[in-house]
Amino acid sequence: MHKRTAALALAVPALWLAAATSPAHAAPGEVQTVCASTLTPAGWVDVSWGTSLSCGSGSAPNVKQIKQLTGLPVGTTVNACASTYPPAGWVQTGSSYYSSSCRYSTVPSFNPNAWTLKRVS
Question: What is the annotated signal peptide range for this record (predicted)?
């Protein structure tokens, strides 16, 4: 019984992660959590970084939340991490700034790592 429980405990996060890494059918504005090793798809931006055992061990940020921007209306603004470039039709408004949720490195730094994006076309 203990082996079955252990196997289920390992399988559930793996299934959740597999479901969360399928951004092809996401709605505009949808946020998904993926391992940091997953490339952020076109039309998406990183919105936060963190650490999760479901993506391996260690202290480095190894998981990120990504947000689907494709399909959002013109004039929409989004706060995003500077770890990805703005998608086509989106521009940076104002200066970049520091956000603790956008720390994608273990090296401590208070350098600007986030920006506000606006859909212009």
Answer: 1-26
What span, in angstroms and rounded, lies between the C-alpha atoms of 12 and 87?
A: 33
CA gap 93, 104 in Å, rounded: 22
Q: What is the DSSP annotation of 25-84?
A: GPPTT-EEEEETTSPPPTTEEEEEEE--GGG-SSSS--EEEEEE-TTPPTT-EEEEETTS
- Return the domain boundaries, the chain: 2-119
Instruction: Give 16's DSSP letter.
Output: H
* CA atoms within 13 Å, Cβ hemisphere of 26: 23
Cβ(32)–Cβ(41) below 8 Å = no
pTM for this prediction: 0.78
1: Cα separation from own chain's centroid: 37
Polymer length of the chain: 121
Cα–Cα distances (Å) from 44 to 1, 3, 68, 95, 111, in that order, read 42, 39, 4, 21, 23
